[in-house]
Write a structure and sequence with these properties.
The protein is an alpha/beta fold. It is built from seven helices and six strands; from the N terminus they run E-H-H-E-H-E-H-E-H-H-E-H-E. The longest helix has 21 residues. The structure holds adenosine-5'-triphosphate and magnesium ion. Magnesium ion binds next to helix 1.
Protein backbone atom coordinates (compact mmCIF):
# COMPACT_ATOMS: atom_id res chain seq x y z
CA UNK A 1 0.00 0.00 0.00
CA UNK A 2 1.28 3.43 -0.98
CA UNK A 3 1.29 5.82 1.94
CA UNK A 4 1.68 9.55 1.64
CA UNK A 5 5.15 10.86 2.34
CA UNK A 6 5.34 13.09 5.42
CA UNK A 7 5.27 16.79 4.51
CA UNK A 8 8.72 18.43 4.26
CA UNK A 9 7.39 21.86 5.12
CA UNK A 10 4.76 23.04 7.53
CA UNK A 11 1.52 23.61 5.63
CA UNK A 12 1.16 27.06 7.21
CA UNK A 13 3.18 29.52 9.25
CA UNK A 14 2.78 29.76 13.01
CA UNK A 15 -0.31 31.94 13.47
CA UNK A 16 0.55 35.42 14.69
CA UNK A 17 -2.95 36.90 14.80
CA UNK A 18 -5.34 37.33 17.69
CA UNK A 19 -8.21 34.95 18.38
CA UNK A 20 -11.63 36.37 17.54
CA UNK A 21 -15.06 35.33 16.38
CA UNK A 22 -15.11 33.84 12.90
CA UNK A 23 -17.54 34.11 10.04
CA UNK A 24 -17.78 30.60 8.63
CA UNK A 25 -19.65 29.79 5.40
CA UNK A 26 -20.67 26.32 4.19
CA UNK A 27 -21.90 26.57 0.61
CA UNK A 28 -21.99 24.49 -2.59
CA UNK A 29 -24.34 21.95 -4.15
CA UNK A 30 -23.30 18.82 -2.25
CA UNK A 31 -24.65 17.34 0.95
CA UNK A 32 -23.25 18.38 4.31
CA UNK A 33 -23.63 22.15 4.69
CA UNK A 34 -26.18 22.05 7.49
CA UNK A 35 -24.89 18.91 9.14
CA UNK A 36 -21.37 20.37 9.33
CA UNK A 37 -22.83 23.53 10.89
CA UNK A 38 -24.69 21.38 13.44
CA UNK A 39 -21.43 19.57 14.17
CA UNK A 40 -19.77 22.91 14.92
CA UNK A 41 -22.67 23.90 17.17
CA UNK A 42 -22.20 20.62 19.08
CA UNK A 43 -18.48 21.18 19.41
CA UNK A 44 -19.03 24.74 20.62
CA UNK A 45 -21.67 23.55 23.09
CA UNK A 46 -19.18 20.99 24.42
CA UNK A 47 -16.90 23.90 25.38
CA UNK A 48 -19.53 25.88 27.27
CA UNK A 49 -17.42 25.42 30.43
CA UNK A 50 -14.68 27.47 28.70
CA UNK A 51 -16.66 30.29 27.10
CA UNK A 52 -19.68 30.25 29.42
CA UNK A 53 -22.08 31.27 26.66
CA UNK A 54 -24.96 29.83 24.68
CA UNK A 55 -25.07 28.45 21.17
CA UNK A 56 -28.07 29.28 19.00
CA UNK A 57 -29.28 27.89 15.69
CA UNK A 58 -31.69 29.77 13.41
CA UNK A 59 -33.13 28.02 10.37
CA UNK A 60 -34.41 30.42 7.74
CA UNK A 61 -36.34 27.94 5.58
CA UNK A 62 -37.69 25.52 8.18
CA UNK A 63 -41.02 25.90 9.95
CA UNK A 64 -40.98 26.52 13.73
CA UNK A 65 -42.64 23.14 14.33
CA UNK A 66 -40.05 21.06 12.40
CA UNK A 67 -39.19 17.84 14.24
CA UNK A 68 -36.22 16.44 12.35
CA UNK A 69 -33.61 14.35 14.14
CA UNK A 70 -31.57 17.45 14.90
CA UNK A 71 -34.53 19.25 16.50
CA UNK A 72 -35.23 16.30 18.79
CA UNK A 73 -31.58 15.90 19.76
CA UNK A 74 -30.81 19.59 20.23
CA UNK A 75 -33.89 19.88 22.41
CA UNK A 76 -32.62 17.02 24.59
CA UNK A 77 -29.16 18.47 25.07
CA UNK A 78 -30.33 22.09 25.33
CA UNK A 79 -29.24 23.87 22.17
CA UNK A 80 -32.04 26.17 21.02
CA UNK A 81 -32.91 25.67 17.34
CA UNK A 82 -35.55 27.93 15.85
CA UNK A 83 -37.30 27.61 12.51
CA UNK A 84 -38.09 31.03 11.07
CA UNK A 85 -39.71 30.10 7.76
CA UNK A 86 -42.83 28.59 6.31
CA UNK A 87 -41.28 25.64 4.53
CA UNK A 88 -40.95 27.67 1.34
CA UNK A 89 -40.86 25.66 -1.85
CA UNK A 90 -41.19 26.66 -5.50
CA UNK A 91 -44.86 25.77 -5.06
CA UNK A 92 -45.22 28.34 -2.30
CA UNK A 93 -48.49 30.18 -2.80
CA UNK A 94 -47.53 33.18 -0.80
CA UNK A 95 -44.04 34.40 -1.56
CA UNK A 96 -44.64 37.73 0.12
CA UNK A 97 -45.40 35.88 3.35
CA UNK A 98 -42.17 33.88 3.09
CA UNK A 99 -40.29 37.11 2.44
CA UNK A 100 -41.83 38.81 5.47
CA UNK A 101 -40.94 35.83 7.68
CA UNK A 102 -37.36 36.02 6.44
CA UNK A 103 -37.20 39.73 7.30
CA UNK A 104 -38.61 39.11 10.78
CA UNK A 105 -36.19 36.19 11.13
CA UNK A 106 -33.21 38.30 10.20
CA UNK A 107 -34.19 40.91 12.81
CA UNK A 108 -34.22 38.15 15.44
CA UNK A 109 -30.94 36.64 14.31
CA UNK A 110 -29.38 40.10 14.14
CA UNK A 111 -30.46 40.85 17.72
CA UNK A 112 -28.97 37.54 18.89
CA UNK A 113 -25.67 38.26 17.14
CA UNK A 114 -25.51 41.84 18.42
CA UNK A 115 -26.41 40.86 22.00
CA UNK A 116 -23.03 39.23 22.50
CA UNK A 117 -24.81 36.60 24.61
CA UNK A 118 -23.88 33.78 22.23
CA UNK A 119 -20.58 32.08 21.60
CA UNK A 120 -21.90 30.95 18.21
CA UNK A 121 -24.93 31.78 16.12
CA UNK A 122 -25.77 29.47 13.21
CA UNK A 123 -27.82 30.90 10.32
CA UNK A 124 -28.87 27.76 8.47
CA UNK A 125 -30.05 28.25 4.87
CA UNK A 126 -29.55 31.98 5.18
CA UNK A 127 -28.28 32.32 1.60
CA UNK A 128 -31.80 31.77 0.20
CA UNK A 129 -33.48 34.90 1.61
CA UNK A 130 -30.48 36.80 0.26
CA UNK A 131 -30.59 35.21 -3.20
CA UNK A 132 -34.36 35.66 -3.48
CA UNK A 133 -34.05 39.34 -2.60
CA UNK A 134 -36.32 38.97 0.42
CA UNK A 135 -34.18 41.25 2.58
CA UNK A 136 -33.95 44.05 -0.01
CA UNK A 137 -36.62 46.21 1.72
CA UNK A 138 -34.47 46.24 4.88
CA UNK A 139 -31.12 46.92 3.26
CA UNK A 140 -30.36 43.59 1.56
CA UNK A 141 -26.93 42.04 1.48
CA UNK A 142 -25.19 45.37 2.26
CA UNK A 143 -27.04 45.68 5.57
CA UNK A 144 -26.28 42.04 6.40
CA UNK A 145 -22.58 42.50 5.65
CA UNK A 146 -22.51 45.67 7.78
CA UNK A 147 -24.19 43.89 10.73
CA UNK A 148 -21.78 40.97 10.53
CA UNK A 149 -18.79 43.31 10.17
CA UNK A 150 -19.90 45.36 13.22
CA UNK A 151 -20.77 42.40 15.45
CA UNK A 152 -19.14 41.90 18.85
CA UNK A 153 -15.68 40.60 18.02
CA UNK A 154 -15.88 37.29 19.90
CA UNK A 155 -19.11 36.04 18.28
CA UNK A 156 -18.76 33.17 15.79
CA UNK A 157 -21.35 33.14 13.01
CA UNK A 158 -21.91 30.14 10.74
CA UNK A 159 -23.91 30.58 7.52
CA UNK A 160 -25.09 27.77 5.26
CA UNK A 161 -26.81 27.50 1.91
CA UNK A 162 -26.13 27.11 -1.77
CA UNK A 163 -24.91 29.92 -4.05
CA UNK A 164 -23.52 32.09 -1.26
CA UNK A 165 -23.42 35.75 -2.41
CA UNK A 166 -19.85 36.96 -3.15
CA UNK A 167 -20.16 39.79 -0.61
CA UNK A 168 -20.46 37.23 2.20
CA UNK A 169 -17.66 35.06 0.81
CA UNK A 170 -15.49 38.17 0.75
CA UNK A 171 -16.23 38.99 4.40
CA UNK A 172 -15.98 35.40 5.68
CA UNK A 173 -12.89 33.97 7.37
CA UNK A 174 -13.52 30.31 6.54
CA UNK A 175 -15.45 29.23 3.45
CA UNK A 176 -16.05 25.63 2.47
CA UNK A 177 -17.72 24.50 -0.71
CA UNK A 178 -19.48 21.14 -0.47
CA UNK A 179 -19.17 19.94 -4.03
CA UNK A 180 -21.49 17.18 -5.16
CA UNK A 181 -19.60 14.22 -6.52
CA UNK A 182 -22.62 11.94 -6.14
CA UNK A 183 -25.95 12.19 -4.37
CA UNK A 184 -28.25 9.23 -3.75
CA UNK A 185 -31.22 11.35 -4.76
CA UNK A 186 -29.92 11.48 -8.33
CA UNK A 187 -30.20 7.68 -8.67
CA UNK A 188 -33.76 7.75 -7.42
CA UNK A 189 -33.24 6.94 -3.74
CA UNK A 190 -35.78 8.93 -1.72
CA UNK A 191 -34.96 11.01 1.36
CA UNK A 192 -34.56 8.84 4.46
CA UNK A 193 -35.33 9.39 8.14
CA UNK A 194 -32.15 9.97 10.09
CA UNK A 195 -30.15 10.87 6.97
CA UNK A 196 -32.04 13.80 5.46
CA UNK A 197 -34.34 14.73 8.33
P1 LIG B 1 -27.56 18.35 5.00
O1 LIG B 1 -28.69 19.04 5.73
O2 LIG B 1 -27.86 16.92 4.78
O3 LIG B 1 -26.24 18.66 5.56
P2 LIG B 1 -27.18 20.37 3.05
O4 LIG B 1 -27.47 21.36 4.11
O5 LIG B 1 -25.80 20.36 2.48
O6 LIG B 1 -27.58 18.94 3.51
P3 LIG B 1 -29.34 21.47 1.48
O7 LIG B 1 -29.07 22.20 0.21
O8 LIG B 1 -29.75 22.24 2.69
O9 LIG B 1 -28.09 20.54 1.79
O10 LIG B 1 -30.36 20.35 1.15
C1 LIG B 1 -31.22 19.82 2.03
C2 LIG B 1 -31.61 18.46 1.56
O11 LIG B 1 -31.28 18.22 0.21
C3 LIG B 1 -30.91 17.35 2.34
O12 LIG B 1 -31.87 16.41 2.59
C4 LIG B 1 -29.83 16.85 1.43
O13 LIG B 1 -29.57 15.47 1.56
C5 LIG B 1 -30.41 17.11 0.09
N1 LIG B 1 -29.33 17.39 -0.86
C6 LIG B 1 -28.15 17.97 -0.59
N2 LIG B 1 -27.39 18.03 -1.70
C7 LIG B 1 -28.11 17.48 -2.68
C8 LIG B 1 -27.90 17.24 -4.08
N3 LIG B 1 -26.77 17.60 -4.67
N4 LIG B 1 -28.89 16.64 -4.79
C9 LIG B 1 -30.03 16.29 -4.20
N5 LIG B 1 -30.31 16.49 -2.89
C10 LIG B 1 -29.36 17.07 -2.14
MG1 LIG C 1 -29.07 22.49 4.60
Amino acid sequence: MQIETPPQHKPYEKPEGERRGLLIVNTGDGKGKSTAAFGLALRAFGRTHVHGKQVKIFQFMKVPTARFGEHRMFEQIGIPIEGLGDGFSWKSQDLEHSAQLARDGWQKAKAAIQSGDYFMVVLDEFTYPLIYGWLEPIGGIEAVVQTLFDRPRDVHVVITGRRCPPELIELADTVTEMRKIKHAFNIGIPAQRGIED
